Amino acid sequence: MTTAPDGTIWVTDRCGISGAGGTTCAGDNAKVNPIFQFDTSGKLLKTFGAGMFVSPHKLAVDRDGFLWLADNGGHQVFKLSEDGKVLLTLGKKGIAGAGLDEFDAPTDVAIAPNGDIFVGDGHSGGGTATGNARIVKFAKDGKFLKTWGRKGMGPGEFDVIHTLAFDSRGRLFVGDRQNNRIQIFDQNGNFIAQWFQFGRPSGIYIDRNDVIYVADSESRDGRTNTGQLTLPQTGYAFNQGAQRGIRIGSAVDGSVHSFIPDACPYPYPAISSMAEGVTADAEGNVYGADFLGDVRKFVKK
Q1: Has residue 86 got a pLDDT over 90?
Q2: pLDDT band at residue 301 using 50, 70 and 90 as cut-offs
Q3: DSSP per residue over 39-56, as a string?
Q4: What's the predicted TM-score (pTM) here?
Q5: Sheet with 117-121, edge to edge strand ranges
Q6: Distance from CA of residue 20 to its chain's centroid?
């Protein structure tokens, strides 16, 4: 989900099915619209997209109001008008690959001020050596420019790039989810910093004042929410002691000043809960797109 320049809230889901990848918008679900536009009161303004995608993952809106959707089930990225007309397509439908014109489960798109396109690729193979783990950069017309990253835990390495955002200085914030951190780069792929204080990032939104909002829907340790030691204490989503929820802070210095806790009791179960996507409006109210299909609004006091 994201906030558009006109203040409306855009949301995508997986045609009513939770989970990532696969073919959530296939079969009978091909009749379900996966893209929604709301005003800040929650009134539905527009919905479309039935039959267009395999399994949408994240939706971005650029400064000109164009929509960018990462279809990680179809291994493609789409640029759309506000009425759903396809303006640009990147990747090959149904083909997962590591070529310069291919993706393997792309997760998110961020558009630089000059129109360059940055794609987070990919979602598969969390905690293993398989799958892509890179940022792919294109010119605004879709021409390939460069790529960087590989599987790993070091600076400039990734494991499940899940969310992207730019700050006011044009720095690219990458939610490196399986590594439980945010990495920051310049637009040429040069590493600047890594932050662990925002938890396990499923979604990132940075407003025009460089307030950063980070949704953590997955952190867990080796216990369930019944308190029993029944979950593996290493592996996917392991982030010992971190609370799930939405952290709010500064994209300038990395400080965290507010926290909206996940309603799911700690310690957490293996499944995701509460906000996977996050955005905010001009008044500082926060919106979370829940893994199970709801959108929640948190009103700033």
Answers
A1: yes
A2: confident
A3: -TT--EEEEE-TTT-SSE
A4: 0.97
A5: 106-111, 117-121, 134-138, 144-148
A6: 11
Of 218, 135, 216, 138, give the one whose Cα is nearest residue 183: 135
Contact status, residue 100 vs residue 144, Cβ threshold 8 Å: yes
Domain 2-298 has CATH 1.10.10.10: no
Where exactly are the structural domains of the chain? 2-298
Cis peptide before 122 (omega within 30 of 0): yes
Task: Return the residue matching tokens 């995508």.
Answer: 12
Q: Which of 198, 193, 183, 168 is nearest to 275 (CA)?
A: 198
Which token pair is 174?
């990458």
Q: State pLDDT tens for residues 255-286.
A: 999 999 999 999 999 989 999 999 999 999 99
**Cis amide linkage into residue 267, ω under 30° from 0:** yes
Q: In the structure encoding, which two tokens stand for residue 198, read together?
A: 């925002």
Task: Let me know: does 180 contact 242? Beta carbons within 8 Å.
Answer: yes
Lowest mean pLDDT among 147-151, 174-178, 248-252, 267-271: 267-271
The Cα–Cα gap between 133 and 160 comes to 7
CA distances from 239 to 70, 87, 139, 232, 244 (A): 26, 40, 36, 11, 10
d(CA 101, CA 288): 32
Q: Which two tokens stand for residue 126?
A: 């969390």
DSSP string across 229-274: S-S-SSSTTB-TTPPPEEEEEETTT--EEEEEE-SSPSSP-SS--S
Q: Which two tokens stand for residue 93?
A: 């439908």
Q: Which residue, 87, 182, 88, 174, is CA-closest to 136?
A: 174
AA letter at 94: G
pLDDT, tens digit (0-9, with 9 covering 90-100), for 174-216: 999 999 999 999 999 999 999 999 999 999 999 999 999 999 9
